[in-house]
Design a protein that fits this description.
Blueprint: E1 10-13, H1 22-29, E2 33-36, H2 43-51, E3 54-57, H3 73-80, E4 85-89, H4 97-106, E5 112-115, E6 127-131, E7 134-139, E8 142-145, H5 157-168, H6 172-175, H7 181-187, E9 206-207, E10 213-215
């Protein structure tokens, strides 16, 4: 990012593995969003992260401590702090529909961003695929290693949107922000991206009545 200013927009890290606070200072100076992910951070540690400028969470609920009644962890921090944004995989597998409903009730919708975490098999048939040298078995909507561990997903964003609306009963006019303006604001590009307005880039997607992409 120092060599190519502005090239890196977001970096996911496990803060408990970062021994020097200068790392967070550098990310802030370079205007790189520091995101907590693949982390075993507890709630107290997560609060410290927020104070250091880590204000986003990558695929909330996955590859991190769960929400526990004696230690609410990163998930609890996001629920309590509207300034903590997060993305999540809305396939009904990585997070249960019930948990997604809870998130939508406990959090501000402008905190939430839909992602896919899709691997190369997305849109392809069931079978075996490679993911960074690991053999992934895809069956239906699930991508797993041979030991059953989830290995990314085969989700697409139109399906993520449809799932979110179905799981939460939140209408399209509100749910669409989880794919558009929320990300644009987080990345600091909302003046040109994120909504249909005069003077903004015409990044348009045509959806069917079933919310499937039928045109770009």
């Amino acid at each position: 990012s120092i060599a190519r200013p502005g090239l890196v927009k977001l970096m996911t890290l496990a803060p408990e593995l970062v021994t020097e606070d200068e790392v967070f200072d550098l990310l802030r100076e370079q205007k790189v969003i520091a995101s907590v992910g693949h982390s075993l951070q507890d709630y107290d540690g997560a609060c410290q992260c927020l104070r250091k400028g880590v204000n986003h969470a990558t695929h909330l609920g996955n590859a991190m401590k769960g929400l526990h009644h004696r230690d609410v962890g990163i998930i609890g921090l996001a629920m309590q702090n509207p300034e903590m944004t997060f993305d999540f995989i809305c396939d009904g597998i990585h997070l249960s529909p019930n948990f997604i409903r809870i998130l939508a009730k406990a959090c501000e919708l402008n905190q939430m961003m839909l992602i896919t975490d899709a691997m190369r098999a997305a849109g392809l048939d069931d079978g075996e695929y490679d993911l960074g040298g690991q053999n992934v078995i895809v069956r239906g909507d699930e991508a797993r290693l041979s030991d059953g561990t989830l290995a990314g997903s085969v989700l697409t964003l139109d399906k993520a949107l449809s799932n979110f609306m179905k799981f939460t009963n939140i209408p399209l006019e509100k749910a669409i922000y989880l794919l558009t303006m929320n990300q644009a604001k987080k990345l600091g590009i909302s003046e040109t991206k994120g909504s249909i307005q005069v003077g903004k880039d015409a990044d348009l997607v045509l959806l069917s009545k079933e919310y499937q992409v039928i045109g770009l």
